[in-house]
Amino acid sequence: MAGIFKAYDIRGVVGKDLDEDLAFKIGRAFASFLNCRRVVVGQDMRSSSEAMFQALTRGLTRQGADVIRVGVCSTPMSYYANGKLGADASIMITASHNPGEWNGFKLCREKAIPISGATGIQEIERRVRKSDFAPAPVSPGTISSYDILPEYVKHVKKLAALQRPITIAADYANAMGCVESKALTDLMRVDAMYATLDGAFPHHEANPLKTETLADLQQKVRVGLPGVVRHCRTKTGHYDFGVAFDGDADRVGFVDETGGIVPMDMITLLIAQSILKKHKGVILYDLRSSWTVREVIAENGGTPRMCRVGHAFIKQQMREVDALFAGELSGHYYFRENYFTESSAMAVLYMANLLSQSQEPLSALIRPFHRYFKSPEINSEVKDPPTVLAQLKNQYRSGKQFELDGLSVEFADWWFNVRCSNTEPLVRLNLEAKTQAQLDQRTQELLALIRAK
């Protein structure tokens, strides 16, 4: 059990860290903690998910909670079901992009408000460890089923504004993108890859943040990929763009019509630009994003607000400022319409709308927004991450500093952010500069300080 109660969810290797007895106790602890009466429960396609569902819901119903089973679904669908059905809480059984032997639980209060380590997971862990459950009622709760898919499809389709036919390639990685994308297939031509649910992830890890997992999608978009299941009659190599979903489909990555990987902050600014054409308001952007994101939001009449990394923090800030949209560099895209939570289908639809209304391909649309030179996230293993951040704070005290998440320092012509990992002795570095030469120089300079013995 050690280590499975994490900052944003509960997650571990089934049979080693997590078993049915523990899932039962988590169900009891969750219901005792929230005193909830109606709980939406969804699950992904992993081989262990059904057993986890049965054990978890035994615990929930033991405490008198009624379970609304929404079946095999994406995480965005479970969030939508929570809000749409007026539930007191929800649990999604998934381990996201982790390998098939993993599983876990994503927890929410009413209206899909996430429960993080600080807002409940630590307390649930304490209750599990101490078997500190509320007295079980005489009559247990019930389990009923609800098909949320038709309503989710209708919900997403409301945003459609397509002005010409759009064709995309979609890599589902044998995971929940297969279900999430059902909100798209009547709106555009979707040429699907790895479209059979298989929790063993036989083709590749379902994680678009790792660029190597996008290789098959890039190849398909460029020239067509032999042996791939085809769901529509399209010419290979002729796509408006390609998309790759992560394991539970709450994240999505994009490639352009040439197969080039589109940086996720570029997707944030394009979606923000589209939303701001109809509605003015606050747009949140991940503090690791390019300066261009902030500039484009302001140029289009929006109010840019920086946010820290992590879905629980972003959703909380969205609610506080009633934000229209938020984008995170990991491929999470959050919409006010989906109860301030992710919807990969909505992100794909916004991009399809944009491409259908433009005479330019995606590669040309993003070209003007490459105004600066930006690094990928660079991880360094260090013995004492807090000390490293303190040293950097002193070294760069002449810059504008803030500590929204780790340490950020801005100068007139470059900026950097360093954060400590929540789970490993790592320091994560992101930086951007006005020239490539300066980016290279500052990267070397910072890494030398971070990695100094």
What does this protein look like?
This protein is α/β, with parallel strands linked by helices. The chain has 4 domains: 10-147, Alpha-D-Glucose-1,6-Bisphosphate, Chain A, domain 3 (3-Layer(aba) Sandwich); 151-255, Alpha-D-Glucose-1,6-Bisphosphate, subunit A, domain 3 (Alpha-D-Glucose-1,6-Bisphosphate, Chain A, domain 3), CATH 3.40.120; 264-343 and 357-369, 3-Layer(aba) Sandwich (Alpha-D-Glucose-1,6-Bisphosphate, Chain A, domain 3); 373-450, TATA-Binding Protein, CATH 3.30.310.50. 34% of the residues lie in helices and 21% in strands. The chain has 14 helices and 21 strands. The protein has helices at 20-34, 49-62, 75-84, 117-130, 149-157, 177-180, 215-223, 264-278, 291-299, 311-321, 344-356, 362-366, 385-395, 436-450, and strands at residues 10-13, 38-43, 66-72, 89-93, 102-108, 143-145, 167-171, 189-193, 241-245, 252-255, 282-286, 303-307, 325-327, 333-335, 341-342, 373-374, 378-381, 400-402, 407-410, 414-420, 426-433. A 6-stranded mixed sheet has the order 1-5-4-2-3-6, sandwiched between helices. Strands 16, 17, 18, 19, 20 and 21 form a 6-stranded antiparallel sheet that branches. Strand 2 (38-43), helix 2 (49-62) and strand 3 form a beta-alpha-beta unit.
